[in-house]
Design brief:
Number of strands: 9
Distance between the termini: 39 Å
Strand content: 15-25%
CATH class of the largest domain: Alpha Beta
Strand order of the largest sheet: 2-1-6-5-7
Shape: elongated
Length: 228
């Protein structure tokens, strides 16, 4: 997979993509991440990429021209499965969407800033809009970081044990079961004995039961009628 990120803060991503799973996926050549400085596509002397909004109002708006030029250049070099814009007023990112995106070959992610982007970009250039929650961030860089981490970890070969990602919360509309490790007793707090008996069938049933209980108590909105 190749991911092209368009931002006005390219330095932000140098640290983000240099650790843990994101770094390993690049070392293994499973993923290629390219960062593009939007200001390089500005045609004015100041290299500015924003202006006042038509109709008045507070906040600057990112110009359409540098965004269009950058994306056109990228599209001239390869085809893309999606051109994604991170924005709070969009469909909320969920595990199903992450699973779908993990099958992509090439993605462009546009990080907005200021008040947002010229709406014509959203109407004519962007193919998918995603939000990471019902709140507003200063810019799309943090949201983009969440997106690429949640997608890349699902690509086969990224995580040593491929079954680990399949057991994450939300994969089957349930939250994950409680997990424990050594020591089995600490400060008088004990690991459930069923996890220590080695009976895989009993452990599986216990985990399923606990997942259902946790989902019903914590996120009833996720709970499917199939489990009632």
């Amino acid at each position: 997979m190749r991911i092209d990120i368009i931002t006005i803060f390219p330095e932000f991503f140098k640290e983000v993509i240099s650790y843990s799973i994101l770094e390993k996926s690049q070392t293994k050549k499973i993923v290629e991440i390219k960062i593009h400085d939007l200001r390089k596509y500005s045609l004015n002397n100041q290299k500015s990429v924003d202006d006042y909004q038509y109709g008045g109002g507070a906040g600057m708006v990112m110009n359409i021209e540098p965004i269009d030029l950058c994306i056109k250049k990228l599209k001239s070099e390869r085809s893309y499965d999606d051109i994604i814009y991170m924005t709070p007023d969009a469909k909320k990112l969920d595990q199903a969407e992450c699973n779908k995106l993990s099958l992509s070959k090439n993605l462009i992610i546009l990080c907005g800033h200021y008040k947002g982007i010229d709406h014509r970009v959203r109407e004519h250039i962007i193919t998918k809009e995603l939000s990471i929650g019902d709140y507003v961030l200063t810019g799309g860089e943090l949201a983009c970081s969440v997106l690429i981490d949640s997608v890349i970890r699902l690509i086969p070969g990224t995580i040593s044990d491929g079954t680990s990602a399949l057991e994450d919360s939300f994969q089957d509309s349930l939250l994950t079961y409680p997990i424990y490790t050594r020591p089995s007793t600490y400060n008088g707090w004990e690991v459930p004995k069923i996890l220590l008996n080695g009976n895989e069938k009993e452990i599986k049933r216990w985990r399923e039961k606990k997942s259902i209980e946790k989902t019903k108590a914590t996120r009833p909105d996720l709970f499917k009628k199939d489990f009632l």
